[in-house]
């Protein structure tokens, strides 16, 4: 089994640069054939809602919406923290961006205990 890289992101429109950097790294990993997951917490869970990432861009960096699509098109997954999503009224009944799933802490812990790497971007 290949190692899964977990990229943590807690930002969205509140800090476009910090929201974009994990997706740059994760998209690079996914396009290179690595198994990659962006774990979104706090404000980043909003990126799982269609159209939100399209409005986020940091000068000198690729538009976040393009990176999210590139990442998921390459097979990357976006995990949205269930507690953070619920707080922001994001539920499993809603349409999410392709590749996005609402997950609990148990799934993240399981990924880590299976010897998977965590990469902070």
Gyration radius from CA atoms, angstroms? 13 Å
Question: Can you tell me the residue ranges where pLDDT is under 50 for at least 5 consecutive residues?
Answer: none
How many strand units? Answer: 5
Q: Tell me, what is the CATH class?
A: Alpha Beta
Helix count equals: 4
Number of domains: 1
> What fraction of residues sit in β-strands?
15-25%
Instruction: Indicate the mean pLDDT.
Output: 91
**CA-to-CA gap between the ends?**
23 Å
Kindly report the name of the CATH homologous superfamily. DsrEFH-like
How would a crystallographer describe the biggest sheet? 5 strands, parallel
Protein name: Sulfur reduction protein DsrE
Pfam family, one: DsrE
Organism: Egicoccus halophilus
Explain what this protein looks like in three dimensions:
This protein has 121 residues and is of the alpha/beta class. It has one domain: DsrEFH-like (Hypothetical Protein Ychn, Chain: A, 3-Layer(aba) Sandwich). 34% of the residues lie in helices and 20% in strands. The protein is built from four helices and five strands; from the N terminus they run βαβαβαβαβ. A five-stranded parallel β-sheet has the order 4-3-2-1-5. β3, α3 and β4 form a beta-alpha-beta unit. α1 packs parallel to α2. The longest helix has 16 residues. The two termini are 23 Å apart. The model has no long low-confidence stretch (mean pLDDT 91). InterPro entries: DsrEFH-like (IPR027396), Sulphur_relay_DsrE/F-like (IPR003787). This is Sulfur reduction protein DsrE.
């Amino acid at each position: 089994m290949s190692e899964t890289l977990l990229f943590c992101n807690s930002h969205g429109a509140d800090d476009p640069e910090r929201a974009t950097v994990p997706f740059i790294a994760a998209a690079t990993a996914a396009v290179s054939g690595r198994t990659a997951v962006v774990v979104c917490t706090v404000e980043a869970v909003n990126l799982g809602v269609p159209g939100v990432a399209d409005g986020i861009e940091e000068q000198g960096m690729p538009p976040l919406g393009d990176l999210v699509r590139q990442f998921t098109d390459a097979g990357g997954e976006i995990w949205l923290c269930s507690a953070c999503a619920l707080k922001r009224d994001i539920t499993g009944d809603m349409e999410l961006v392709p590749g996005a799933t609402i997950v609990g802490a148990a799934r993240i812990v399981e990924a880590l205990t299976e010897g998977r790497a965590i990469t902070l971007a």
